[in-house]
Amino acid sequence: MITCLYFAWVRERIGCDEESLSPPSEVGNLHQFLDWLSRKSAAHAHALSDPTILRFAINQDYATMDSPIKKGDEVAIFPPVTGG
Amino acid sequence: MDEMAHIRVQKDPFDVAQELAALQKKGADMGALVSFTGLVREFDDDRRITKLTLEHYPAMTKRQLHAIAAEAEARFSLVHCRVIHRFGPLHPGDPIVLVITAARHRKAAFEGAEFLMDWLKTKAPFWKKEESSNGSQWVAAQESDDLAAQKWTAPTVKPNGQ
Question: Which domains does chain A have, with CATH numbers?
């Protein structure tokens, strides 16, 4: 099971702030996870259509497309941050 | 490391004078205290802002702010630092963020505060939604913020996870 969190307009487009997901075993990195996730619904496809305008974290650390994903991880998908 | 850095993420306002006084009490080994307060602007270009709502990712915010503070302390030999960041609904004139650095000399305190703000802006997971005369929209990240953060040549995590 993977916990997937969404923030800001990604959350609004997908329509929820958190999902528990069980991707197939061949999903081993962030790139593969996003491919799989964007096929989940039209809303997911819309939110994830351009990964270059998104940022990702795995277990609260920034991640890149080749970062490994395993069972129990917390994945977060969000736009570039605008704090301060 | 956590003892030196005092990090808070809260809905409530903060009192700058009170925070400065609290930090000053930490010890006499400081010759300089620098504080920066970020406020909600009333106008952004031609838009009149009525409300700014900050959303964040609590677990990651805590982790990132501690990492950023630890990096600042190490780089600038800060004696102490304090970071307070608000979330939730805010209005023009409201304080959003407070950074205080304490160092033996002013240069380190000034630079440490600037570094903390530059890194915080590009790494701490906060997002702003603005309500203005033009309706409601998510505030876009500024390239100028990324460039400001890059000038410190981040050794570990790059700004905005790029």
Answer: 2-78 (3.10.20.30)
> What is the CATH topology of the domain spanning B5-152?
Aldehyde Oxidoreductase; domain 3 (3.90.1170)
Residue in B126, B139, B157 closest to A62 by CB: B157
Which pLDDT tens digit goes with each residue over B105-132? 999 999 999 999 999 999 999 999 999 9
Put simply, the answer to whether A84 touches B157 (Cβ < 8 Å) is no
- Contact between chains at A83 and B121 (C-beta distance less than 8 A): yes
Are the CB atoms for B47 and A44 separated by under 8 Å? no
Nearest C-alpha neighbor of A48 from the set A80, A3, A78, A26? A78
What tens digit of pLDDT does each residue of B33-44 get?
A: 999 999 999 988
**pLDDT < 70 regions, chain A:** none
| Residue B88: other Cβ atoms inside 10 A | 12
